[in-house]
Amino acid sequence: MKRLFLLLPALWLAACAANPATGGYNLSLTSPKEQRELGDRTATATLAAEGVYRPTSAATLYVNDLCNRIYAVTEAAAEPVQCNLIDTNEVNAFATPGYLSFHRGLLAYLSSEDELASIIGHEAGHLTSRHVARSVTAGRVADIFIMGAVAGVAATTAASDPASLEGLSTVGQQASTVGRMAFSRDYEREADSLGRRYMQAAGFAPTGSVDAQQAMLLYNGYMEQRLQAAFGGEKASVLDRLKSSHPPSQERLDTARKDAGDAPMSSTPDAGRTRYMQAIEGLAFGPARRYGIARQNELVLTRERVVLPLPAGSTTEYLSSGSFDDLGTWLVGHPQSGTYVRVNAYKSVTGRSPAATLAKLLPALNSGVQRMAIGQPVLATSAEEGDDETPTSTDEDTADLLADTAAEDLGQLPHREVIGYTATYRYLNSPKRFRVVAFETATRRNKMMVLTAIYPNDEVMQREDANLMAILKNVRFLTRTEALKYKQLYLHAFTAAAGETVAQKAAHLPVGAYQEPLFRALNNLPEGQDLQPGQLYKTIVDPNS
To answer: What is the distance in angstroms between the CA of the first residue and the CA of the last residue of the chain?
Structure first.
């Protein structure tokens, strides 16, 4: 242990480097080459999973332009950087060595050029202050301390008590994790401060950081309310994903207000808002089309050729799959009953029926597997489609549309009944009850849907289960032509007219529940604020209506 503490000062002197962004010195146990390789791996994995959003779209070009303008005024401007607008509905942004990446979903909840500039400046601050290198170094130093502490105890305590060593190691790991979380918060504060410096140097008003922090707080409040009511136990994993990076807080908002207090306002705030709204006009809302389209009364899975009806007042949440050929997980919540349904799709195993798959997935089923009809059978007189059909769309979603016409596509409506299998189960003494349903899709070869309904208790299951069964009987299967006609929901900017209210505009949003909280989050309008005549705002349009 003594040798460890003698080694650390020498390690510090050898590995310290000046940080031009912060004006301080940082210990670094990772080389620039290693940092860039980490950045390349992260960016490659992200782009392989989700891809860049429509590379020639106004939104992508706009984000890239602002990103490059702001990065050009940083201390790291001589180092190459790639700006990306990632095609995912997550509300997030991240920086890794050599890359500044922004998720498409973030743009829906910002309302001006200055707000976006503050987010870009913040991410640039993570790069210039070398937060990735410092995080890696902090982890390696913590590991050194843990190993040293364990070695010290091993040398001075009874070797016959392995529980003591195991317990100390666990405590050390937990302490390391807490320390890293604290560092993360410090890094966020540092990036906020640097971001305001950069955006102002690039000609943007630092007051945009105040509006952006408020927008993120409002968005998280909306998500907490919705997830708490609609998805029960699933809410934790979703919220953890939302808050794991860039956690919004009242403290960050207060600091932004204090730092921006005496700074000049934008000389053209209305022009900046207009430019932003014009750039995101038509921006896709929701996950990429290949993962499905959540409408007010139905969930359309275009690639699986399945349409699931949704009961009135339902809400949907997509959990990113991380791959082009995997549906991932949809959550369909019913806040009125506390019930929610997980929706997944899997590749069928040749020769294994959905019933056999259920038995393999859930070997401890509490009830037998039962057979049931899914959807309405289609009459044999229905017109069939040819296998040579190709998409006619020439828009920038062509890749997704082509994915819809893969060789495994059967192409025509099923002239038969689709049979599914269902079973119920529970875990030990948990009050929750589960019903799982599996069926092969009708117009896709070797593709199986699995729906898992989670009821909070027996009483709710007895009351709501029949409704789920009724919904399954009304599932629709799409032909290739029908599936290709579906388009993503998108953002639309409008100018508020005299007399228009938040309540009126929110009522037209194409979602099943929490319309007003969503509208307020989209437009950074806290409770008590209403539309201002002549001001630009955002709404969501369903082109399939």
So the answer is: 70
Q: Which of 100, 110, 99, 89 is nearest to 204 (CA)?
A: 110
Give the residues across from 515 on adjacent strands.
Answer: none
Report the greatest alpha carbon distance in the chain. Answer: 86
As a whole number of angstroms, the distance between CA 513 and CA 229 comes to 11
* Separation of alpha carbons 526 and 515, rounded Å: 14
Phi, psi of 230 (to 5 degrees): -95, -30
Query: pLDDT tens digit string along 452-479?
Result: 999 999 999 999 999 998 889 899 988 8
pLDDT at 190: 85
What are the backbone angles phi and psi of residue 444, rounded to the nearest 5°? Answer: -125, 130
| Percent with pLDDT over 70 in the chain | 70
Whether 207 and 266 have beta carbons less than 8 Å apart is answered as yes
Beta carbons within 8 Å of 413's beta carbon, 6+ residues apart: 378, 382, 384, 385, 442, 443, 477, 479
Q: Kindly calculate the radius of gyration of the chain based on its CA atoms and give it in whole angstroms.
A: 26
| List of residues 6+ apart from 415 with CB closer than 8 A | 378, 379, 380, 382
